[in-house]
Design brief:
Blueprint lengths: L6 E5 L3 H13 L9 E6 L15 H9 L3 H8 L2 E3 L1 E5 L9 E5 L11 H9 L4 H5 L2 H6 L19 E3 L2 H14 L4 E4 L2 E5 L8 E4 L3 E4 L2 E4 L6 H6 L4 E3 L8 E7 L12 E6 L2 E7 L4 E7 L6 H13 L4 H6 L3 E4 L3 E3 L3 E2 L2 E3 L5 E2 L7 H15 L7 H28 L7 H7 L6 H10 L18 H10 L16 H21 L3 H13 L7
Parallel strand pairs: 1-2, 1-11, 2-7, 4-14, 11-20
Antiparallel strand pairs: 3-6, 4-5, 8-9, 9-10, 12-18, 13-16, 13-17, 14-15, 15-16, 18-21, 19-20
Helix pairs in contact: 1-7, 1-11, 3-17, 4-16
Bound molecules: flavin-adenine dinucleotide.
Amino acid sequence: MNKALKNIVIVGGGTAGWLTAAIIAAQHNSHHPDGVNITLIESPDIKPIGVGEGTWPTMRNTLEKIGISEDDFFRCTDASFKQGSQFIGWNNGQVNDSYYHPFIAPHGFGQTNISASWQQFNSHIPFAHAISFQPYLCDHGCAPKQQQTPEYAGVANYGYHLNAGKFSALLQQHCIEKLGVQHISDNVIKVNGEVKENIASVTTNKNGDISAQLFIDCSGSNAILLGQHYQVPFINKKDILFNDTALAVQVPYHKPDAPIASHTISTAQKAGWIWDIGLPTRRGVGYVYASDYLTDSEAETTLRDYLKQDLPAEAVKEAVIRKISFTPGHRENFWHKNCVAVGMAAGFLEPLEASALALVEMSANMIAKELPADMSIIEITAKRFNQRFHYRWQRIIEFLKLHYLLSKRTDSQYWLDNQSATSVPQRLQELIKLWRFQAPSYNDFSEIEEIFPAASYQYILYGMGFITEKRTTSTLYDNTALAEKYAFENRQLCDKYLAGLPKNRQLINHILARGKNKNIHSI
Ligand SMILES: Cc1cc2nc3c(=O)[nH]c(=O)nc-3n(C[C@H](O)[C@H](O)[C@H](O)COP(=O)(O)OP(=O)(O)OC[C@H]3O[C@@H](n4cnc5c(N)ncnc54)[C@H](O)[C@@H]3O)c2cc1C
C-alpha cells in the first residue's frame, strides 16, 4: 500500500489558512503534478476575524519564501513598517512613563554584561535607547531602510503593520494563481471518521465529501476539527492573562500626510491597553480589556477619549466600533491523529506583542518541514509538534504576563490582581527571583528557535524599572570597558541612521509609486 502523504485539506480561509497553505504549497511543489495537493475550504458565510494587523520580522522571510515581492505586498495590503512596540503608561502610569521593545537585539548582546553596565553608568537613559539605535528611529518616525535597499533587506530589523483583510486576499490570490492551491468556497457541515481514528473526509454543503490524508484546522476559534470533532480540550488561561474583549476601530489620520508611526503604540489603561497601529491609509486602534474589571460602555468611552487626542470630535463620533470577544487559552494538544490546528483554532491569548501570526508561521513551517513522507510516522511527527508548541505557548504566556506583573500601577484592581503572585506561573516566579541577581541570558531560553529570546526579556524588565543586583565579586563577563564601547558605538550608529534614513511615510510613498509602474497583482 502506498502511504506517501499526497493530499492535504485545510479548513478555513482566514490569515492562518492562507498563510499555512502558501508555506506548505511553496515547499512541497503544489503547482506541480508530483507535488503535494492542497485544497482549502472556506465558508462563504463565516467571515474571518479580520484583525491581526501587526507582524514580526519573520514575515519578511515567509513572504520571500512563498514568492511575493515586497513591493506587491506593500501595494496590496496597505502595509507600513513596524520596528517594535512602545509601551506607554505600563510602569506607573505617570507622565514620561514609556519604553520600547524594539525588534533589534541590544548592540553587543551576549558579548558582555550590557545591562549591568547600563544600570551602573547609563541608567539616566532608558535601557532600550542606551543599547539600541532602533528606539531613536521610532521616535523620529524613520523607516528601517533606504529607497535603494533591496526587497526584504533592512538597515534595522523590521516587520509590518497591514490591513488583515487585504493580506488574506493577497495570499488567496497568490496561492491559487501561483502556488497551485485548490480553493473551495463552501461550508464544512460534517467531519467523517470515528473519533478514535483518522479523519477520512469532510462533508461540504455543495461539493460533497472531500477526503485527504492530513487535515489542517484553520477554522478559527470554533476549531471544528480538533475541538468539535476530536474534542481536544481547550485550556483556559484567564487566571493568568485576564483580557478577553477588544473594541476595534479604524480611523483616518488628522491630516492625509501625517507621519506614520514606525512601531505599535501600546498605551496602558485602567483594565487593559490600547493599541494604535499606523497604516498609510488609516490608523487601526483598539482597546483590549478584561470584562471582569470593565464594562463595554466604560471601555468605549475610554477608547473614544483616546481618539479625541488628535481627531476632531465629529470624526470620533462617527467612528464605528467593533466588539470582539475571545477566551485566552489554547488547545491541550495541537496535532491529534491526522489533524493539526493552526491559528485561532489552536488558541489565542491576546494581541500584546502580536505573536499570533508568528506562531502561525512557525506552525506552518514545522508542518512543511516535517510533513510525514510516509503516513506510518505521523504519530511521531504529531508528538514532536505537540512538544514543541506546548513549550512555545507556555513561553508566550509567561512573556505576556511579565508586562503586567512588573507594573507598579495601583489605580485599579485589575493592575493589583495582575501583580499578585497567585496569577503568575511558577516558572516565571522563579525566573523573576533569579533575575534579581543575574540578567536574563541564553541559559534561561535555550531552544534553537525561542519565541522570545533573552534580549526581549531584558527590554521589558529594564524598561519597566526592574533592578538586577550587581555582583559583589567580579566576573570576566562583567567587562565594563567593552560594554561602554558598545554603548558608544550605539550612539554613533544612531547618528548615522537618523541622518541617512527616510521617514516611514516617505519610503512607503516611494514604494507605492515604484509599484505603479509594474504589472503586478491587483486586488
Ligand atoms: C483583537 C485582536 C487583535 C489581534 N491582533 C493581532 C496582531 O496584531 N498580530 C497578530 O499576529 N495577530 C493578531 N491577532 C490574531 C489574528 O487576528 C489571528 O491569529 C489571525 O487573524 C488568524 O485567524 P484565523 O485564520 O485562525 O481565524 P479566522 O480569521 O477566524 O478564520 C477562520 C476561517 O475558518 C472558516 N470557517 C469556519 N467555520 C467553517 C466551516 N464550517 N466551513 C468552512 N470554513 C469555515 C471561516 O470562513 C474563516 O475563513 C489578533 C486577534 C484579536 C482578537
